[in-house]
Write a structure and sequence with these properties.
Shape: elongated
Order of helices and strands: HEEEE
Strand order of the largest sheet: 1-3-4-2
Distance between the termini: 69 Å
Number of helices: 1
Helix content: 10-25%
Length: 88
């Protein structure tokens, strides 16, 4: 019985060394941002902090990305739109 427990313990110790780390790949962007929208947000990304988020959070082209623009005093308002502008 002691050998069984030792074997289980050893296998549990070695198990993490055999698991390869998974890297989440970003989905491809299917469209560009409108002029003046200079940064990207993932749909559903936590959008909190000391600023307000306005605009649309609808992902019209289904690629998982939104475009963002900082406006207002000190960039305290973030405007979001979908990235549905054709690539140049």
């Amino acid at each position: 019985m002691r050998k069984l427990w030792a074997g289980l313990f050893l296998s549990m110790l070695l198990l993490p060394s055999f698991v390869l780390p998974l890297q989440a790949e970003e989905p491809p962007k299917l469209g560009d941002c409108p002029a003046g929208f200079d940064h990207w947000h993932r749909v559903g990304e936590a959008m909190d902090g000391d600023h307000k988020h306005v605009g649309s959070d609808l992902d019209l082209n289904g690629d998982g990305w939104l475009c963002g623009k900082h406006v207002g005093p000190n960039g305290s308002i973030h405007v979001h739109v979908d990235n549905n502008v054709p690539w140049k």
